[in-house]
Give the backbone structure.
Amino acid sequence: MDMPSEDIVPPGPARDLLSELHKLYLLAGTPGLREISTGIADREDFSSTLNRNLISRILTGKTAANSLQLDSLVRFFAERAVTRLNPEEESDRLLALWLDANGATQGETDRSGKTGDSVELALREASTRGTAEPLVKMCANADPSTVLRVLDEIGRRKWTSFSRDVKKSLCATFAPRNIPTLVAEMRLSRQYGWDALRVLEGFGRARPISDVTELMRLLCAAGSTEDAASVLHAFLRVRKSHDAANLYGSLLEVSITPWELREPFSGNTPFVSDFVEFASLLDEMGKGAAAVQAINHRLRVAFGRSSFPAALRTCVQLVNAGMVDHAEDLMVLTMVRGAERDLGEYLADESVSREEKDAVLDMSKRETVHGRAKAILESRAFASRKEFGIIGE
């Protein structure tokens, strides 16, 4: 599929953006429309799905992609490029071009004091074209009052699909510094409370590590640790070990310890990332002292509070990888949380291999593990008795 002529897409930011998208399309081997559409639909971590007709219209310049559609196309092409490309970096690069092509005019309109007229124009254009794109542009990094007015007007007209598209776009088009205010305003309006949480989760799933770190820093500084935890949990559910390790490293650099955040929920979310790789990457960053706490936290995020079996399996994996100190530290944390009853249930589980059981039992009996865990539990029991006056000072 060739780049459209200048008669269809005139020279300017929009053509520059489409040209860069076509370069990625060529590097990906010019896959067919069905292959692109199916490949994107199969990826739950992508921002948006696109049918064949829409992909064709975007590549031929007949329709401009919104930010979520562009993100999905860029990541699909970048992952299949013959040269090694980073999908996240390519997405950031083209989304910056997208903002150049779509954001400047909107920002000037908002500052001009004619927001009301602009919203009406965007609503009319969306109705005429049958797409939410004008409304997505209207709301891109806009004042929260503008976003809420657009959502209110869409809701009043019962444009369900447009409402969904606009809400999904917010996490991609807002700068980190503006997200806390947007989320707060959405919650104050009450009817958009759940949508505010979805903005935070969408931000965590789709944005680069630098943006996620900055947003979490701002939220923690404002005391919104539950919101910061929501962003973090969404990030961890879809990102691989390398990204997770880099995020933990970045958060520690700005004095945020993820495992101290108040967790808004405990999932039972399947987690496939390699905890051993995660620990190794943190060690390479010079964050070895935090690696065990980080692993323990990721286990809780992945499997909820009842992560005892998963933690024990991770201990065995760490030993097999030669990371014995980390394995013993994690075993101590695990035994302190689960105590001997859970360990007994694990060893009696017929689905666990004999080799794994032997490895866990051997580790639990080591003095460096058993002694430390026993000392911690006794210390806690002593502190509890003292607190309730069972023993004197």
